From TrEMBL:
PROSITE patterns: HTH_TETR_2. Keywords: DNA-binding, Transcription, Transcription regulation. GO terms for molecular function: DNA binding. The keyword Ribosomal protein does not apply. Pfam families: TetR_C_13, TetR_N. Residues 6-66 form the HTH tetR-type domain. Residues 29-48 bind DNA. This is TetR/AcrR family transcriptional regulator. It comes from Streptomyces dangxiongensis. The keyword DNA-binding applies.
Length: 203
């Protein structure tokens, strides 16, 4: 058994992800990470490559876990952009309301700290936000598609609202209030699409 890891790497990664999610990058010290995972500094470095490398792996794990849910919600209603955006926000609000996970969003938390992150991690956070925006942008295509420029703007708007919901939830905003924000965002998307010449011609 000598030289073999005596712990589950995925479990340790989940525990570390929770620390970054709750505390943010700055306050997630190696001591705190070690306490949460049960690993000493040597094991943290040996397994994950240090705090910055561990942080990046946690970002990827978070993005993979929730990104899959977003993707499924958005693609289930292909060709119906308004319903797709509603489904997207349903997933977002379900994550926020889940008592088993920290408040907010790891990516939103990390975006707020981007100026103090090392270059690679700061850029990676931006990449994850861009990935989310591309998913939403794709949902705005199809028979009811908006013009290219407008679809780009709407995708950015939806992602911005998503990040705002995460920040508001960490500040204690109620579920009712958060759902009102999401509902108004969906209504804005619907009204904006309805106002385009393509949709007006079909009315």
């Amino acid at each position: 058994m000598s030289g073999r890891k005596q712990f589950d790497v995925d479990t340790a990664l989940d525990q570390a992800m929770r620390v970054f999610w709750e505390r943010g990058y700055t306050d997630a010290s190696l001591d705190v990470l070690g306490s949460a995972t049960g690993l000493g500094r040597g094991s943290l470095y040996g397994t994950f490559g240090g705090k910055d490398a561990l942080f990046r792996q946690c970002l990827d794990r978070y993005a993979s876990t929730y990104g899959t849910r977003y993707e499924q919600a958005l693609t289930t209603h292909a060709g119906d952009p308004v319903r797709a955006i509603e489904a997207f926000f349903d997933v977002v609000l379900a994550r926020i309301a889940d008592p088993s996970v920290p408040a907010g969003c790891l990516i939103a938390q990390s975006a707020a700290q981007a100026p103090i992150l090392k270059g690679d991690n700061s850029a990676h956070v931006r990449t994850l936000l861009d990935t989310q925006r591309r998913r939403v942008r794709t949902a705005l295509t199809g028979p009811s598609a908006a013009p290219e420029e407008l679809a780009d703007e709407l995708a950015t708007f939806v992602v911005a609202v998503n990040q705002s919901l995460a920040v508001l939830s960490r500040a204690g905003t109620t579920d009712t209030e958060l759902r009102a924000v999401a509902r108004l965002a969906c209504q804005t998307v619907a009204d904006t699409l309805r106002a385009t010449p393509e949709h007006a011609a079909c009315d």
